[in-house]
Amino acid sequence: MSDRITLRVARYRPERESEITFEDYELPCPKDWVVLDGLNHIKDQMDGTLSYRWSCRMGICGSCGMLVNGEPKLTCATFLSDYAPGPLKVEPLRNFPVIRDLIVDLGDFMGKLVRVKPWIIRRVEQPLSDGEYRQTPDELDEYKQFSMCINCMLCYSACPIYGLDPHFIGPAAIALAQRYNLDSRDEGSAERMAVLSEHDGIWGCTFVGECTKVCPKHVDPAAAIQRYKLQSAIDWVKGFVLPRAAQ
Amino acid sequence: MSQDAAYTPYHPRWHRTRVSTWWWLGRGSYFLFILRELSSLAVAWFVAGLLLLIRAVSAGPAAYQQFLASARLPAVLGLNAIALAFVVLHAITWFNLAPQAMVVHVAGRRVPGWCIAASNYAALVVATAVIYGLLTLTW
Question: Helices A189-196 and A171-181 meet at what angle, rounded to 10?
Fold first, then answer.
């Protein structure tokens, strides 16, 4: 195993460049270093101007998503030694506008996330004196998988549909909507369906399935979208065959 | 959006990378997805052939023989072979994706994904056997 690795890092400094360029950095490659450790080494020891996002270093915060050799990855969970001696290409996430170096703008997703109302909606809140909303383990299992999303945006970066049509609401937002729809305490699925049944909602997805493959938390957004489609189609048929019962 | 607009510190000048027309050649999974989408044309081809066959059968023996003659043309045989390959791809890819779309509970327990895919394949085998039986049955 090589003890050195070359990182080919994308640079975009809008005050002096109009296109993305690449710079090579040769650095040590201990077997316990992840790509994020490599970037921190560059910033601390070699080039303090390199810009990127990171926080928790343990796959919780979802801020260090980047393209590693073209694959959307959490850089805190991708070991350098798997790619030694390189060169290992590190780029900003695909399908997002680049602000600087490896930092992308996530404003589009933040707007979409709010639109799907990812919180528990109750028609009438029960009084505090009635106690908590109880849930069985089976009811928890129904949505738990979708609640693991950390908004790391790897799924948006892997989705060619989002790349081609930025209006598409996207995998994570739909998975999070489904997380609340499947929650036994929630009563807001009709409100979310109004947003998700639009042209840019669930029907924009053509089931490429890459969102599920790249998800570091095994959320399976593709499954959330297809189940939504199936439920929507069943509701439509019910409304067509039994219009009164569907109301 | 990498035009030469003036950069100001408080208003970032974003760089947007344009998606290539050939994006679907960039990864094996994207290419397989495009093939799966294209396979719908093969399904349409077989549906059109079936409708033409029904029309020929209802129009009498002469029309039926004419349909059989045109179905034996090398070009039609070649197209059918390509369409068959696409339809097999269509069936396999969708059967394998079915467990992601379907959540089935039996007796309060969730049916594993492989059971849903296996039931699709079993239905295909049964349907193929029935059709084969009907075609080869001596009346």
Answer: 160
